[in-house]
Specification:
The structure holds two protein chains of two kinds. Chain A is of the alpha+beta class. Chain A has three domains: 7-93, Butyryl-Coa Dehydrogenase, subunit A, domain 1; 128-236, Butyryl-CoA Dehydrogenase, subunit A, domain 2 (Beta Barrel), CATH 2.40.110; 248-385, Butyryl-CoA Dehydrogenase, subunit A, domain 3. Helix content of chain A is 47%, strand content 14%. Chain A has helices at 7-23, 28-32, 39-55, 74-86, 95-108, 111-123, 236-246, 254-273, 279-307, 316-338, 357-367, 374-385, and strands at 128-131, 147-151, 154-165, 172-178, 188-194, 200-205, 214-224, 229-230. In chain A, strand 2 and strand 3 form a beta hairpin. In chain A, helix 1 packs parallel to helix 4 (74-86) and helix 5 (95-108) runs antiparallel to helix 6 (111-123). Chain A is globular and about 70 Å long. Chain B is α+β, with helices and mostly antiparallel strands. Chain B has three domains: 7-112, Orthogonal Bundle (Butyryl-Coa Dehydrogenase, subunit A, domain 1); 118-206, Beta Barrel (Butyryl-CoA Dehydrogenase, subunit A, domain 2), CATH 2.40.110; 208-354, Butyryl-CoA Dehydrogenase, subunit A, domain 3 (Up-down Bundle). Helix content of chain B is 54%, strand content 13%. Chain B has eleven helices and ten strands. Chain B has helices spanning 7-23, 26-35, 42-51, 66-79, 86-96, 102-112, 205-244, 256-285, 290-316, 327-339, 344-354; strands at residues 118-121, 132-134, 137-146, 153-158, 161-166, 174-177, 186-191, 200-204, 246-247, 250-251. In chain B, the strands form three sheets. In chain B, strands 1-4-5-8 form a four-stranded mixed sheet. Chain B has a four-stranded antiparallel sheet with strand order 2-3-7-6, with no helix packed on it. In chain B, strands 9-10 form a two-stranded antiparallel ribbon. In chain B, a hairpin with a 2-residue loop joins strand 2 and strand 3 (137-146). In chain B, helix 7 (205-244) runs parallel beside helix 9 (290-316) and helix 9 packs antiparallel against helix 11 (344-354). The chains are: A alpha+beta, B alpha+beta. Chains A and B meet through helix 8, helix 9, helix 10 and helix 12 of A and helix 7, strand 10, helix 8, helix 9 and helix 11 of B.
């Protein structure tokens, strides 16, 4: 058992920290607190940041070098995400493309698809969103009903997708649609479609945070070309499941780093208020600091398992439950300990400068729902790890 | 990076499991813990010492295998709710190893080898240390001395430093302090003039403080590892029970309410494993972070075990509340390891101060 990073990995981290110091001019918190910004200009901030990262070779790290990556391991990928969180850098706008679709095309796509899509994915010229969930198919994704009807060599897509993160700014969407209604898993195919076309309509959905970061997409005979099918017809489910697997591991150290930043913000606010020394406050903060370190321990374990070549099993459900529920505990505590100032909207007078607590508090409600709700994660643990039977 | 134990330690872990399941199955250990005055089987302790288990924390030349091995062994002991002073003796051996006096060496060797038992005596009625050492004698009272009445010598924290006190000819002036954990034997030891004047100071006050600080970290790690084993086995027993027990025409394991409770228990248990083995690794390989990570492991493991072992009773239903079934043994042992070896509250304070807040 060994949790050391190699000297190369440590060097990668040191270079990255130096690069961030030189290139990250304003933190994401600073950007969002700038009253001159609106939702669109913040997306441009993110797009510019993506370009900088890409120019420096920090995007698609685990992709093969021929496709603009570094052929790096999961460990470097996790270090990158950890340091980006620690530095409070903006999130890239094309994270769904870079982290999910890119690897899917590298593994399952055609040479033409890779050449056509990968460079613009990395540069941020084309933003991707994911068309998986439907109004009737969230956690039970395989029940999806969006149809793909053959039209000559191509397909016409009809149906509805929802919770389409970054949809309002996306140029392309990767869609799971049904090519065979009789075959639950084998009847699903993976399509790539431009959004700006007849028969595809993207409508933003307003979230409890007030933003419209996600949307819903209505397909009414939108065109999906045969050359834009990923893998074979009927292979969509298998590809989608491997795609979702790519997500794992990379953020495993980023959550604790982000939490640590927020904890430091909370502590400095409490010191200013003069309440940090009170025993009940210290106990709460101690508990949060401790739990965050346990989360990091889980993350290092996952990373070590991946580095040893063991695929992350259903135990990753434990990590999902942990970070998402922790974010609620942390922001709950911040509201309780900071008082009404915590509720102030980010650009309001007297709002805390270090962390946008109001936003974080609301946003933390999403984590226990998306990517498999906490309830689904508990089902997975009970059934696949503990082998408890289905009724 | 690699999370799994290396070959030697993995072998130690599996052979320890075999040994303990053979020699200390809960069915047999229960009568020892409930009925014998010492609360544990002395012959088995001697055997463990002879096999080298008492030397795990010593240097490699003296048979040590480091903290990962130590954690692996203690988690195996937790699985069988092992009774007796294994961790207490290990802590005494570890502390004695930092004391150069020849008597300290002798007692360390005898305790590591399983021939004798030395334990630390630290806790008093109040927060302020009162015990004194002077002229070969200790005065004062120590509470919750683990297996104190039967110990062959005590390592007593006094204002003057750490005093090694061999058992007087007339025995200790000890008052049993039975707790809810019948696998535990605590005693209050009253030191007074009637005791033989055979005590020596093995570490002065400054040295003693540094030594006991390290000892606190080792205790936290060891207790967290034991708690891990308690949780692990408790959850296994519980899942097994829910698979066998039928209600409304189906195994109760098929009910989602119970499944989610077991899922939460697994989350608590596996997170403990991550924290314990990271702390053990740090103690071996990255000592600057070891005190923080030991406090994290113990501060997490205590409440986690309370949850998991408590749920074990709940999900066993009525039989979970009976003396006959095992879940209560696990909960009771968990309370010992949660409340001693550094309470949760004190671990939280350690975490807060060591993580730069």
């Amino acid at each position: 058992m060994d949790l050391h990073f190699t000297p190369e990995q440590e060097r990668f981290r040191a270079d990255l920290i130096g690069w961030l110091e030189a290139h990250l001019e304003r933190t994401w918190t600073q950007e969002t607190k700038d009253p001159r910004h609106d939702a669109d200009s913040l997306v441009e901030v993110r797009r510019r940041w993506q370009r900088k990262l890409n120019d420096a070779g920090y995007l698609g790290m685990q992709w093969p070098t021929e496709w603009g990556g570094r052929g790096a391991s999961e460990v470097e990928g996790a270090i990158l995400m950890e340091e980006l969180s620690r530095a409070d850098a903006p999130q890239i706008p094309n994270f769904l493309g870079v982290s999910l679709l890119g690897p899917a095309l590298i593994h399952h796509g055609t040479e033409e698809q890779r050449q056509r899509f990968l460079p613009k994915m990395l540069s941020g010229e084309e933003i991707w969103c994911q068309g998986f969930s439907e109004p009737g198919s969230g956690s039970d994704l395989a029940s999806l009903r969006t149809r793909a009807e053959p039209d000559g060599d191509d397909y016409r897509i009809s149906g509805q997708k929802v919770w389409t993160t970054f949809g309002p700014w996306a140029d392309w969407i990767f869609v799971l649609a049904r090519t065979d209604p009789a075959d639950r898993y084998g009847g699903i195919t993976f399509f790539l479609m431009p959004i700006d076309q007849d028969g595809v309509e993207m409508r933003p959905i307003r979230q409890i945070t007030g933003e419209s970061e996600f949307g819903e997409v209505f397909f009414d005979g939108g065109l999906a070309k045969r050359e834009h099918v990923v893998g074979q017809i009927g292979e969509g489910w298998r590809i989608a499941m491997t795609v979702l697997g790519y997500e794992r591991g990379s953020s495993t150290l980023a959550y604790p780093a982000e939490n640590e930043r927020q904890l430091h913000g909370l502590v400095s606010a409490l010191r200013e208020k003069g309440t940090f020394e009170s025993p009940d406050v210290r106990e709460k903060l101690g508990r949060l600091a401790l739990e965050n370190e346990v989360m990091r321990s889980n993350g290092l374990r996952t990373l070590a398992e991946m580095a040893a070549g063991n695929a992350p099993g259903p135990e990753s459900s434990i990590e999902k439950i942990f970070w998402s529920e922790y974010a609620q505990r942390l922001t709950d505590a911040a509201f309780e300990l900071l008082g009404p100032e915590a509720q102030l909207q980010t650009t309001a007078a007297h709002a805390r400068p270090e962390v946008d607590w109001a936003y974080q508090y609301l946003w933390s409600r999403a984590g226990t729902i998306y990517s498999g709700s906490s309830e689904i994660q508990r089902n997975i643990i009970a059934k696949r790890v503990l082998q408890m039977p289905t009724r | 990076m690699q999370f799994e134990l290396d070959e030697d330690r993995a072998l130690l872990k599996s052979s320890t499991r075999e040994l303990l399941e053979r020699e200390s199955s809960l069915a047999e250990a229960r009568s020892v813990m409930e009925e014998s005055p010492e609360g544990y089987e002395k012959a088995l302790y001697t055997q463990l010492g002879e096999l080298g288990y008492g030397s795990l924390l010593l240097s490699e030349q003296e048979g040590g295998m480091g903290f990962r091995a130590f954690a692996a062994v203690l988690s195996e002991m937790g699985r069988v709710a092992f009774p007796g002073p294994f961790l207490d003796a290990a802590l005494a051996v570890h502390a004695l190893a930092a004391c150069p006096a020849p008597q300290a060496t002798q007692w360390r060797e005898r305790t590591a080898g399983g021939e004798a038992l030395v334990v630390l005596a630290r806790r008093e009625a109040g927060d302020e240390l009162q015990a004194h050492f002077a002229g070969g004698r200790v005065t004062g009272r120590k509470r919750f001395v683990p297996f104190g009445a039967h110990a062959d010598a005590l390592l007593v924290e006094t204002r003057e430093g750490l005093a090694l006190v061999p058992r007087p000819g007339a025995g200790w002036n000890a008052i049993a302090l039975p707790t809810i954990d019948h696998a535990q034997r605590f005693a209050e030891i009253r030191f007074d003039d009637s005791l033989d004047a055979g005590a020596i100071l093995v570490a002065d006050a400054t040295r003693s403080q540094a030594l006991l600080e390290t000892s606190d970290s080792v205790a936290a790690l060891g207790a967290a590892a034991f708690l891990l084993g308690l949780m692990e086995r408790s959850l296994e027993l519980t899942v097994q029970h829910t698979l066998e027990r039928e209600a409304f025409g189906a195994p109760i394991a098929s009910f989602q309410a119970l499944q989610h409770r077991c899922a939460d228990s697994l989350l608590q248990t596996e997170s403990t494993r991550s924290a314990v083995f990271r702390a053990a690794w740090a103690a071996d390989e990255a000592p600057e972070t070891a005190p923080l990570l030991a406090a994290v492991a113990k501060g997490w493991a205590g409440p986690a075990a309370r949850y998991v072992c408590g749920q074990a009773i709940q999900l066993h239903g009525g039989v979970g509340f009976t003396w006959e079934y095992d879940p209560h043994i696990y909960l009771k042992r968990a309370k010992t390891f949660e409340q001693f070896y550094g309470s949760t509250r004190c671990q939280l304070e350690t975490v807060l101060s060591l993580s730069g807040f």
